[in-house]
Amino acid sequence: MGARRCSGCLSCLIIPLALWSIIVNILLYFPNGQTSYASSHKLTNYVWYFEGICFSGIMMLIVAAALLILERNTPYKCCQSENCSKKYMSLLSIIFSVLGIAFSGYCLVISALGLVQGPYCRTLNGWEYVFEDTTGSFLSDPSTWSQCLEPAHVVEWNIILFSILITLSGLQVIISLIKVIIELSKILCTTYSVIIQPGII
């Protein structure tokens, strides 16, 4: 019962993480609250991968909903015995948890790439990725951030929001991985077994 409650809490925790991912990703489209840069496509290309909105957001909400349904105490007879049904439900939970790892992992990777690449901004030479060839070293050198003249403070904006996305999606990966371990332990370390009822064959 304790393991089941813990597993359910983990699934519930995915929901606020997914909602925050959607919000943070949306904020990336509006540096300093301005909409003109999104409408003119003057944003870093990695925001158009919708990593926080679709993958770490909507898709993870679907994963969380599926996991919560599978964890309900209502018995679901999917095969000839209760033990077989429990094993089947654990396998489904593992599948959805692995999907969760894939979705949140995608957001984690894309956000990290966006963070390292730096923002698309206007410099003295025009609009460009001024930090693209620095391999992320600009992150620890704030004196170089003034090269971006427009949007104002876009470097700080991108660093903060991409870092938050990395944290949120990283937590989702960890939670999904723990879910996989819990469900595998249920299958391998408990009494789940396929029992053929007498007279069925």
Blueprint (SSEs and pairs):
Layout: H1 2-27, H2 36-39, H3 51-70, H4 82-117, E1 121-123, E2 126-128, H5 154-189
Antiparallel strand pairs: 1-2
Helix pairs in contact: 1-3, 1-5, 3-4, 4-5
Organism: Sarcophilus harrisii (Tasmanian devil)
Keywords: Membrane, Transmembrane, Transmembrane helix
Membrane topology: Multi-pass membrane protein
Structural notes for this entry:
- Helix 1 (2-27) packs antiparallel against helix 3 (51-70), helix 3 (51-70) packs antiparallel against helix 4 and helix 4 packs antiparallel against helix 5.
- The chain contains five helices and two strands, in the order ααααββα.
- It is mostly helical and 201 residues long.
- Strands 1-2 form a two-stranded antiparallel sheet.
Structure summary:
Helices cover 61% and strands 3% of the residues. The protein has one domain (2-73, 81-189).
Secondary structure class reads mainly alpha
**Oligomeric assembly:** single chain
Q: Could you estimate the helical fraction of the residues in percent?
A: 55-70%
Number of H/I helices? 5
Specify Rg, calculated over alpha carbons: 22 Å
Overall pLDDT level? 88
Number of strands: 2
Strand content: under 5%
Shape: elongated
Supply the number of structural domains. 1
| SSE arrangement, N to C | HHHHEEH
Distance between the termini: 34 Å
Low-confidence parts lasting 5 or more residues at pLDDT below 50? 192-197
Largest pleated sheet:
2 strands, antiparallel
What topology, given as strand order, has the largest sheet?
1-2
